[in-house]
Amino acid sequence: MGQSELKLQTLASAGKELKDNFLRALAEREEANRSGKMTSVIFIRDHNTLGQEVSGYIDYAHRLKTQDFEPYFSGKKQLMPGRSDLCYYNWKTQVSTSNSSPNFEVIYDDPNGLLFKNKRDKKILNVDPSSGPGEDSNRTFLQSDLYVHVVIYDHNIRTV
Predict the structure, then answer these.
(1) How far is C-alpha 95 from the chain's CA centre?
(2) How many domains does the chain have?
(3) Which of 8, 72, 75, 134 lies 20 to 30 angstroms, CA to CA, from 64?
(4) Measuring CA to CA, which residue among 65, 45, 41, 42 is closest to residue 54?
């Protein structure tokens, strides 16, 4: 078995027929997030199993390390923000949490609004849609049949 075949087997998205734009976008970023070349922050707004609107920011690279993504890519489970993610808000109960991750520090008291500071290169990721996302970062708005609103922020890590 060759090196590239071995790598494909470790990707949760490998061999899956992904019909949704959001799942395809996650699959395109999976290898880069697992290898540390990129860290992506996923914003999701949707309704939880109780029908309550929730939204939040997920550190994709961290979730890939701590969770099995096969159920998400195979459509058995829906990726949702939780209280342990970077930021989480339940619009009905008004429960709000923010947590730093191994990749990002949450900055929520800045006059520019919510920011995430990458712990490796110290660059700031700005999630305000009316501002640029920041140096070495891109913002991708996605249409998804699975979620009300999805945005992926990719932060490319420069290797020195």
Answers:
(1) 20
(2) 1
(3) 134
(4) 45
Residue 37, helix vs strand vs coil: coil
For 17-67, how does the pLDDT look when each residue is reduced to its tens digit (9 = 90+)? Answer: 898 999 999 999 999 999 999 999 999 999 999 999 999 999 999 999 999
- Is residue 10, in this structure, part of any structural domain at all? no
Torsion (CA) 59, 40, 77, 70 in degrees, nearest 10: -110
Q: First CA to last CA across the chain, in angstroms?
A: 32
Phi and psi at residue 17, to the nearest 5°: -90, 105
Q: Is 130 domain-assigned?
A: yes
Asked, for residue 31, whether it belongs to a domain, the answer is: yes
- Find the radius of gyration of the CA atoms of the chain: 16
* Residues, the chain: 160
What percentage of the chain reaches a pLDDT higher than 90?
Answer: 85
Domain of 122 in residue numbering reads as: 16-156
pTM above 0.90, yes or no: yes
